[in-house]
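Hi everyone, sorry if this is the wrong subforum. Our group has a chain we'd like a structural model of before ordering constructs, and none of us has done structure prediction before. Sequence below.
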Amino acid sequence: MPEGAILITPDIEDANVLYGSNEVNNIYIPPPSGILSTTPGDPGNAEIQIIYHGSGWIENLGMKGAIENAAEIWEDRLTTNIPIKVRVSIYDMGFDPDKIELAFAKAYQVYANFLNVNDLPLTGLGYQAGVFYPMALANKMANVDLKPDDHDIDVYININENISWFSSNIGGQCGDDEYDLTTVVLHEIAHGLGFESSVKVNEFFEAKWGAAAELNGNTLPYIYDTFVENASYVKLTEKDEFYNSDLYYYVTNPLFWDGSSSYTAFKPHLYAPNPFKPASSIVHVIDDVDENSIMKHEFDKGEEIHNPGSVATGMLQDMGWEIWYSVGLGDTEELLVYSDEEISEPSIPEANYQNPNNGMIECSTIEVSFFSYGATSYKIIVFEEGEFHAQHLVPDGQFSYTLEGLDQSKDYEIIVRAENEYGHSHSETLFRPKCIIGVTIFPNPSIFGGVEIELEEERVINHIGVDGITNPGVGVVIQGDGNSSELNIDVSNLPSGAYNVRVEDENGNIVNKTLMKY
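Answer:
Right subforum, don't worry. Here is the predicted structure as tokens:
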């Protein structure tokens, strides 16, 4: 091990979990075809070695075709001179119909400070000291197998009898009651290549980032962590690394990928639900575009995604991998619409809020953004409360459209339809839920220390933050239980003064009210 290098083996509890839904989605996205070079070197020269581990392989030999099919797809995307060793294990991990665990994966080891920054090999361009890299990427950057006796990636597959696997290497035939094994292994290998975060939470709704090792007294992030930012452009690694409630709030609100290589019109929107989901939050991507859905947090039955997509591969390239992309052109490729992540998810950016203290949110104007390779025209179709409302043709050369005059008290379904000169089309649907919420605080002013906060229209409270106005830095954070529209808050320990009460509902809508404490 080089001087100053740090090598750790993450616990199996830190592995990234992939869930299955009970929905059926019969869709097949084939592997990419054709090569467009974006980096020097030979395209797709990676070698992925599968190491089969576990007691059940004799009975499950049929799974190997799908597993090796996933490995071959990644081999065609990655450029590295060092073989990538993936150990695949099969176990009965149990079955919960409300939370179906299909598989989980992690880098077997992560490595920091394995290169001399003053003498980087060509393969190490972009290397950062003081950052943990997954072993496969560390090997690629060092251009040598740093741990030749160990594997690089662990993949665990659930073979519980209640989970039916489609294990053929021939795509497009997955049944309505089956999960596609090629898709799942393609996803899990990506975790071992770099889709891993060091963020953890505790039972007190506090979060931390950074692995256990330290350098000069500073906790070290994973390379993935260095690209995570929120809607205010604050990086994860700019926040305090030790357990604190402010970081928990940060990681349960909209997060994005601040890289330059994701080939879409927008920054990838990371999966950051509230409450935080260990082994799932942050390390997955929200993207409703089928070709770019390989890193979402769950898959449906019948869903076959055999293309890593430009979002996931672009994120890997940001982390240091060399990626070769295929680009669909002409009349044989399905059009893809890249939707604005702030609209495709039921949340409205804070920049759109107006009059924050009157109990209402201004969201009557929405900018819808999109992009499609090969498209020659776009149209926007709007449904209000399930009824057709309007249709708009987008001017040529324009990749965004502003919708005005939307009723804040109604739900909208917004369809973006892209078409090419051959008559092929593809549509993506965005949702803008009603965004007027009323909130009641009683008593206000508070004299004895207890206040009740209630949302109108049976909205569910996700999160409440009370922040000092006259006493900056003083406040309290309360997490909702996921069911109630009202919560009681004890403010008896807060000094007298004015406080801003920030209430968020289950759709991500936020309202601010002023509370006086005497």
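For your construct planning: Residues 34-42, 326-361 have pLDDT under 50 and may be disordered. Residues 439-517 form a domain with the Immunoglobulin-like fold (CATH 2.60.40.1930).
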